[in-house]
């Protein structure tokens, strides 16, 4: 397990860990269960370092590719994160954050098509966009960046608590035939290349 965890982890992990101490004295099974919950929460919010490839648009999240589609002349790639995946979202490209917009919505399962209408946060870079989409259980989206900031490829943009999806609306120069991953494939945030960057865009 990585020693680094996301901001706010201990707000979730501390209660069961603290309660586990007296519970172990009163009831060993209950105490062990609380201890296991606390450890599981810390593991869920782990935030490991990543090694960037030399070039290319990188995946925004760990998980399974659930969306690869054309959308108004652009290509959208979505990554579904289950409870065992790292939930830290990373920048697919260098860019300047033009805006960070929160949109209320439903809380459908993040792997379903209906999740397009879920609560979300869109980070707009002008040339591309990254969306944090909450799942049916997730209720906490935590962006780390705001409008007016410059962001480096692979930089942490934020995290989502408990089950979710992260989308990238690729730049206009990216064609669906250029995408190097496919639906159902597992990817790693900041490491898996979604599409290679043209030389004149690097």
Describe the structure.
- GO terms for molecular function: phosphatidylserine decarboxylase activity.
- With 202 residues, the chain is an alpha+beta fold.
- It folds into two domains: 36 residues, no CATH class; 141 residues, Glucose Permease (Domain IIA), CATH 2.70.70.
- It contains two helices and 14 strands, in the order ααββββββββββββββ.
- A seven-stranded antiparallel beta sheet has the order 6-7-8-12-3-2-13, with no helix packed on it.
- Strand 2 and strand 3 form a beta hairpin.
- The longest helix is centred in the first third of the chain and has 18 residues.
- The mean pLDDT is 85.
By CATH, the architecture of the largest domain is named Distorted Sandwich
Q: What is the string of SSEs from the N terminus onward?
A: HHEEEEEEEEEEEEEE
Q: Report the total helices.
A: 2
Structural class: alpha+beta
Uncertain segments of ≥5 residues (pLDDT<50)? none
Percentage of residues in DSSP E strands: 25-35%
What percent of the residues sit in helical stretches (DSSP H or I)?
10-25%
Protein name: Phosphatidylserine decarboxylase
Keywords: Cell membrane, Decarboxylase, Lipid biosynthesis, Lipid metabolism, Lyase, Membrane, Phospholipid biosynthesis, Phospholipid metabolism, Pyruvate, Transmembrane, Transmembrane helix, Zymogen
GO biological process, one term: phospholipid biosynthetic process
Transmembrane segments: 20-45
């Amino acid at each position: 397990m990585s020693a680094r965890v996301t901001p706010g982890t201990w707000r979730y992990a501390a209660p069961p860990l603290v309660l586990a101490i007296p519970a172990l004295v009163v009831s060993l099974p209950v105490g062990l269960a609380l201890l296991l919950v606390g450890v599981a929460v810390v593991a869920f919010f782990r935030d490991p370092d990543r090694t960037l490839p030399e070039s290319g648009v990188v995946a925004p999240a760990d998980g399974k590719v659930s969306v690869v589609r054309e959308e108004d002349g652009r290509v959208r790639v979505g990554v579904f994160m289950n409870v065992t995946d790292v939930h830290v979202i990373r920048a697919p490209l260098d860019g300047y954050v033009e805006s960070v917009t929160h949109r209320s919505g439903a809380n459908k399962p993040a792997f379903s098509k209906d999740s397009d209408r879920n609560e979300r946060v869109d980070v707009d870079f002008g040339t591309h966009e990254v969306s944090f989409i909450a799942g049916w259980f997730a209720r906490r989206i935590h962006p780390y960046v705001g409008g007016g900031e410059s962001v480096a490829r692979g930089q942490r943009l934020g995290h989502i608590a408990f089950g979710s999806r992260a989308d990238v609306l690729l730049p206009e120069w990216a064609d669906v035939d250029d995408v190097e991953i496919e639906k159902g494939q597992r990817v790693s945030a900041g490491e898996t290349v979604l599409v290679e960057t043209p030389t004149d865009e690097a």
